[in-house]
Amino acid sequence: MTAPALPVAASVFGAALPALEAYAELLAGPATERGLLGPRETPRLWERHLLNCAGLSELVEDGQVVLDLGSGAGLPGLVLALQRPDVQVVLVESLQRRATFLTEAVEQLGLRNTLVRRVRAEELAGKLEVDIVTARAVAPVDRLAGWALPLLRPGGRLLALKGEQAATELAAAGPVLHRLGAAASSVVEVGSEELGTQARVVVVERGLTQAPTARPKARPMPRPGGISGPSKRMNKR
Length: 237
Hints:
Helix content is 33%, strand content 22%. By secondary structure, the chain is α/β, with parallel strands linked by helices. The chain has a single domain, classed as Vaccinia Virus protein VP39 (Rossmann fold, 3-Layer(aba) Sandwich), CATH 3.40.50.150. It is globular and about 45 Å long.
């Protein structure tokens, strides 16, 4: 059974709260039953997952195309799509069972601004460019940047939700980011401690030159995606 939405959720999500409650039911039900989330996560879905992802919206501008890399059960991609109908979200996943869940969730939640792609990030390099790549609990920053930067337009940004070691992880990734042609990187705090949405985000901006694509034999992402066809707003090469 899903834990009821915390009182602060209404302040955070506003008119989108009913949709977030419906998504919480999917996380507690099908996502947990299929092993996408551990059963211990159900009582703390709001504070640990949904509210934790909410602050990411502050870093996304109106009309941008966002690719959620290794979307898993849809965190943070589906939270952002429900919060921000003004942006387009592509959920990228490679594992079938996760892709299936994401496709079902998009349909059941009635999301018209969201696509699911069952594909590895390396396979998309050179085929599309997006404004933002998001990720949560996918991989260390250096490996994540290797997948993400080739998918970004020049000046586009990787937004990776990280924990207390965000700055340490970013510092360790410095040489790789330089090699990949990153123009800038930083750790940004988003959200509100009072509302339970405070989170650390590693921000990496792609430079103006072509970012090297990830090597074909690179370790695959630990998670998946499904509906075919890119968004009309997505810039094809």
